[in-house]
Specification:
Blueprint lengths: L3 H13 L15 H14 L1 H12 L10 H25 L5 H10 L1 H33 L7 H17 L2 H32 L12 E2 L10 H15 L8 H4 L8 H29 L11 E2 L12 H10 L5 H34 L17 H17 L4 H4 L5 H23 L4 H32 L4 H28 L13 E6 L5 H12 L4 E8 L2 H13 L6 E5 L6 H14 L4 E10 L3 H6 L2 H10 L5 E9 L19 H4 L11
Parallel strand pairs: 3-4, 3-6, 4-5, 6-7
Antiparallel strand pairs: 1-2
Amino acid sequence: MPSLSDLGQLPKRLVLGRPVRSDRAGESLLPKRLALPIFASDPLSSVAYATQEILIVLTLAGTAFLYLAPWLAIAVVLLLGTVVLSYRQVVRAYPSGGGDYEVAFKNHGRFAGLTVASALLVDYVLTVAVSVAAGTDNIISAFPALDQHRVLLAVGLVALLAAANLRGLRESGRTFAVPTYLFISGILVMIVTGLVRDLFTDSPVVAETAGYSITPEAGFGSLTGLALLFFVLRAFASGCTALTGVEAIANGVPAFRPPKSRNAATTLALMGGIAATMFAGVTGLALAAEVKYVENPCDLEGFTDCETEPQRTVIAQLAAATFGGDTSPGFFVIQGATALVLVLAANTAFNGFPLLGSVLAQDRFMPRQLHTRGDKLVYSNGILLLAGFAALLIVAFDADVNRLIQMYIVGVFTSFSIGQWGMVRHWNRELRGTDDAAARRRIRRSQAINAVGGSLTTVVLLIIVITKFTRGAYLVILVMPVLFLLMRAINRHYSNVSRQLVPDTDSRTLPSKVHAIVLVSKVHKPTLRALAFARATRPDVLTALTVNVDDAETRDLQAAWERYDIPVPLTVLESPYREITRPVVDFVKGVRRDSPRELVVVFVPQYVVGHWWENVLHNQSALRLRARLQFQPGVMITTVPWQLESSFGRDEDGRGSGPAPGDLRRGLTDPEAAPYG
């Protein structure tokens, strides 16, 4: 029969499975085929909304500027290629998993390192919120009736993701591999099928919104000069969401199988090539099919149900047009795969956030609990923290992708820019340390790549901040300094604690004598045990101490003390205001004041109970005393437990077999006399 403790562990085991031994950590390392869906699902899944974000901005002016979409897509693809090449240099130079944080910290110093860390932490939370909200959108595109449950559905998906990641890295990799590869193959098949139909058949792909016209937003009807430039840059900034998650592989190098750096660089190249192909293909097919997607659905002239029906996503419109309508098997396969991969794209953050949190905790900038691995050798606290913040964002913004995405990618491009310029400084240092001509050529080539990457990402960061500031980016810009200051404060605390704990000569000096104080409320078994334990320590002075809050009870206590002939004098403290804690604390302070080198050990009897509600009925005075005494220097507090009958069988392993401590003195060693046999 399972024990009580086993039953208490049952929910945890259902979610996590069996715990994994520490010496099996190497078995959780990832081959490239699993690392790709784990670390690259975010940039790959951004194909589902990057084109959509470009169209949302361009259609603010009606259809007049849709001709710019191919040029914007080309610019995004070139930027993606440059960033991928830049990060291949990072994973080779810094394989420890710190990514941009480590690069910035080692090459620019603490300020830059913490700036990058705060940017990445914010962006990981937004990655989960945006990806899950976008996945929810695609589910609703297939099943519009679910629109009223949007927030609940999104929060539930975050909880499922957290549970999957808590089960362990390899298990989550296997879980996510099939949907990711299904999404890649499905999108590529859709692109090829659609383009073949357009180019070589008489039945071109036509989206359901192709015949709709768009009412331009006020002020966007006639854009020229600087206004037009700002408009184009805003559309480009929205399209740069295709680059989110590229840095995750640099942060996750330790999770790869050896040779770690080479496998990470290969995975990065594969991810970049696949993402660029898919993004370019979806954008081209959307323009060929004349897809319309707007910020406000009622701006679509022809969309008669704009007030009640959700607008179909770009991917949903393309799948329906390519495979024969929204009831075709192909449509549901694409929608299912897209929704799954968008939800699972948050897994990039579920791997990157805990790893970065662990590195920060190791450097004493985050709580040490984030550096601790859980039962499945994953950083459980980091996973739970990420899930909690992402769920809060989803609830606060109603799982609305258009609102959430305005805050997105500010952190990503902040870390991109600082990290790439940090790599330029890294290569400068490497150049100074080598005279080999071949090595210097390789270093200069890497430096040039990072310099180009740093220049482009810095320009894009400025564009993003300027064009998205009033639309939500200001929130991220406000949160990042708060995180920065919080990490500085945590580091200061740990540094202060370390400084105070450094051994000195006083740490080895023995106390001049030991004064033991036993707190007494009644003459009963717990008190007698505490006295016996105190005497066994052979203190120089032993005081039995009670507080007089009721004269009659105190006289009864003194009479019982004499009747049992207890060989320790009983000291009574007067308390006219019926306080217990203050007189005891004042007495202890007086002992310390009279003899500062004297060690005071306070023995506190305490009941051990088996039910939570029994704690409410007992031990309250003991808890208050311990809480006050622990702040007194030179004072030790020793709790002397006395197990009540309700605690029998509640030991750690839950077996409850054999005699409990104290049974011999209680006369409970006879099975018929013991309450539980």
